[in-house]
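Ticket opened by: R.M.
Priority: normal
Category: complex prediction / small molecule

The reporter submitted a protein together with adenosine-5'-triphosphate and asked that the result be attached to this ticket for the collaborator who will pick it up next week. Submitted input follows.
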Amino acid sequence: MDSIGTNLFRVLRALSGKEFRSGEAVAKDLGISRASVHNAVHQAQALGIDIYSVRGRGYRLVYPHSWLDAERIQDALGGLGYRVHWHEQMDSTNGRLMAMGQAGVEHKAVLTTEWQTGGKGRRGRAWLSPLGGGLAFSILWRFNRSAGDLSCLSLAVGLGLVRALRQMGLAGAQLKWPNDVLLDGRKLAGILIELQGDVLGPSMAVIGVGVNVHLSEGVRGEIDQPVIDLVEGLGEAVDRNHLLVECLRYLHEVLEHFERDGFTGLRAEWEANHAFHGCEARMIAAQGESWQGRVSGIDEAGALLLDTATGQRRFYSGELSLRGVSA
Ligand code: ATP
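Result attached by the on-call engineer:
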């Protein structure tokens, strides 16, 4: 396998239970040496995975990890037509699924991983999705529409995620224009959509989603914005299989809607779920220029409407970041 040692995932799986396990017992079960177990534990710790290591008792993952089961996920989705592909580790589910799409992989292919090591945000920024700490997945959707017709797709996807998260018990999940999901004003999930297609269609969208499940303090410290995860939001452990199934189920609803009618019919619900709707906020351009005003909504093209002292301004997604302004 890749850059990461062959024993790493096997050892981590062996340490995922509630009980401590001795290096000797794990080595025996896996048919490897004790030194290999020890090395895998050290490698995992160096990669930021929290593992208890107690003399006389052995090892155990600090945070129980729910491993993904592609077959179970696919079965739970019944007749929706998704084909779930899974790898233990990969750089970016979006990057890999785009390549699979170009090579002809079918509509509704889903790619997910235990550990995404090179997750992408907008403008070349990084999305952190550590092993056990996040859920990262991408969906390939082939549209008859042109890529230019998909400008509101990330808004629709955000809405699907909020529906899924609310249904899972996070009543306070909200959207942040254009592509984030917040809880308590902190970032819980992000979306990155990459498109390919002809001016007149058809087009192919790779819809990438990252949801924070349980981030260690170390990972939180690496993120330069306020963050939250599902375990904190729900106050209980989360089964990542269930999370993925619910996300896909609700994304399916909005994607089918979007394919048929575009963003029409979703806009009012989107606005009602926008964390900054009716609030004072600042729009900041990558070059540093900024505009302050009251968020009055979004238009049919998904542009954010900001009522400023000098009149209403319309912002199309791109090199822009929206931030709240406290009264
Ligand atoms: P902005 O907040 O400026 O609008 P963005 O939300 O569009 O930016 P993205 O490009 O979607 O940002 O995501 C990348 C950014 O998200 C990173 O620069 C970092 O600040 C933050 N980030 C990275 N990993 C995580 C994570 N696991 N959870 C929350 N935020 C993260």
